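Hey,
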Amino acid sequence: MSLLKANLLLLLAAALWGFGNVAQKTVLAHLDALSAVGLRCLIGGLLVLPFVLTERRLPAGPAHFSSLVRIGVLFAVSVTLQQLCYLGATVTNASFMISTATVMTPLAAWLLIGERPTASLIFAAGLTVVGAMLLSGGVASLSGGDLTAILSAACYALWTVELGRHMQAHGRPFTAAAAQFLLAAAFALPLGVMQGNLSLGAALAAGPELGILGVFSTAVAFGIQIVTQRFTPASHVAVIVSAESVFGALGAAIFLGERNSPLGALGAAIILVAILSVAMSNRTAGTPFGAGPIHPFGAAVAASAHPSVNSDQRDIS
């Protein structure tokens, strides 16, 4: 596959994630947030599950199960917070604020595994704070949904670091992806039954949104990243998939009529510049394939391109 074709396919994956953010908002008209997370992850898990059979003969270390549980719990918390943020945040705000995980992940790597951030990364992190403030209208204007989106981004950052360690030690990308989705479903669905409005009628009413989220935003987009990251540098991947936030804002404008003030648009632009600056700084530093930042939600399968990377080639942002 040519580099151009791989990059175009990655752009399609970013579009699927970005436009899928609209479905994350509209699905709440039919289902509570926990039920939506549970059903979406159940669909994704069942679609990935058959591919787990292709990994059944791969060796698994003694700590494989505990590592799976750890990354599964982090993923369940992250995706649940992401869905909850749409209760109080616009699709545009949520898309850009969750994308700040691209900047937060190296900071998490510093705290968890001692990888020190560069001065340019610290500057980029500061830019994201400024951009988030402008996007939301200031600290006083931050809604509960905005704060939940930022918390979700932080959890995704922690999850990505842990996932990088898991993939280096154990591989088995399809097993990791299926375990995460199904664990998230097992966490969210019972709560949806007890606390939400989960019912057959509500699930059928949300069918189009669940199809988009479970099939396209999860299984298809993940599959694209599995294939294309074998043919394009990780730094290119980071630049392209961070366009998810742009597609999310575009989808919100087309389908939901969301509009930002000039200051909000400036804030969104600043966040995007910060995200791209992190990715481009990794490229100029000569980051090897599989070591650059990747979309937090696609990390499980992106790592499949390099299941046996060296310890200095970390599959984190």
